[in-house]
Amino acid sequence: MKTAGRIHPVYAEMERTVFDRMSALAREHGAINLGQGFPDGPPPPALIEAASRALYERSSQYPPGAGLMELREAICGYYARRQGLELAPEQVTVTSGATEALAAAVFAFVKPGDEVILFQPAYDAYAPLVRRAGGIPVSVPLLPPDFRYPAEALEAALQKRSTLLARSGLPDPAPAKPRVLMLNDPLNPAGTVASHEELAMIAKACVEHDLIAICDEVWEDVRFDGVPHRSLLRFPGMAERTVKIGSAGKIFGLTGWKIGWMIAAGPLATALARAHQFLTFATAVPLQWAVAEGLALPDAVLDGQRGQWAAARERLKAGLAGAGYAVLPNAATWFLTVDLAASGIGLKDRVFSERAVIEAGVASVPVSALYQGEEVPEHLVRFCFTKPMDVLDEAAARLARFRAEIAG
Ligand code: PMP
Ligand code: GLN
């Protein structure tokens, strides 16, 4: 069979994700994997115990498509306790990780020809999902070193098409309009957290332009230095137009469990549940029971885990700084970003990452892989720090030797 022209254009040219590629290279070269984001430490024992108990004692047949009621209630309880949100289980759909929630939300709300505001850098699934839904990604770049949200650039992106049309004087047969905005706060890969003012500005733009906000908050509980999390959902006018997405993978450091969820008000929640029912219908039921128990654990359990991650962050930051790398500020996520240019390294990020995994035995993620469009910085590399201390020390030592070889 001739396949040319038969494969959807989004997939025809697509590469393997940078995370999968760097993990494969790390395996191939026996490298320390600080690329793809996952913790090496053992998962919270209470969750392992709860999952195995569920395997023995609970049904292994299909749960309700929207998720176990016990888990949906636990998600609401968790957000009431930790974020002061008043949510009802009917607003929650449990998904196979946040990735499925993102897909369901994009498929539910992006129609062919709709523009979708995407801040860059962005999790690599966003743009392909938007394109597969027939939408048009409109990039608003966030620039290093602080990755702040630019009000003017956002407004320009929202106004661009109408301004261009007005100047041309031509009628538009089918004007594309921004309909959806995707926000990831805290932000992967930068590890930054939006301020109250930035979120208020984004919320105002969403209300004024009647946008639905798909708000990817998977890193909401991986924050350091007392930096608070504020859900976009809480800003005026946003409860009715926000999809809040979360993931047990990040909250508990259980990335392979792939239990996530999406939350929205009435009519949006119904559309999300419909999109989900024909993506996966339902997700692994023993793990749903375990996550329900996990979300009800005392806050001290999560705080203890966060304390370990914070210590690992300090260790890698000190190791990299000691090795001559310029580390950007980080307030959240499992990642530190290094500025290669400021570290005296002239290599582009992709070249650095490819060489470092082979020559130094340390995998990283080139940040340019998470940008699309123009204004792509090519001097930033991301390292995951949720690893044992001796592994971080060895990685820093290897990167010190590597820098000595390549720095100008
Ligand atoms: N969104 C962001 C911003 C992420 O960083 C990740 C995973 N690292 C996901 C979504 C996907 O989460 P999950 O593994 O639950 O699908
Ligand atoms: N988002 C994760 C990271 O930033 C990876 C997720 C994946 O591999 N699909 O490392």
TrEMBL record:
GO cellular component: cytoplasm
Gene3D superfamilies linked to this entry: Aspartate Aminotransferase, domain 1, Type I PLP-dependent aspartate aminotransferase-like (Major domain)
Chain ranges of the Aminotransferase class I/classII large domain: 32-399
Keyword Hydrolase: no
InterPro entries for the chain: Aminotransferase_I/II_large, Kynurenine-oxoglutarate_AT, PyrdxlP-dep_Trfase, PyrdxlP-dep_Trfase_major, PyrdxlP-dep_Trfase_small
UniProt GO MF annotations: kynurenine-oxoglutarate transaminase activity; pyridoxal phosphate binding
Cofactor names: pyridoxal 5'-phosphate
CDD domains reported in the protein's UniProt record: AAT_like
Key words, A-Z: Aminotransferase, Pyridoxal phosphate, Transferase
Any matching Pfam family: Aminotran_1_2
Designated name of the protein: Aminotransferase
Organism: Novosphingobium pentaromativorans
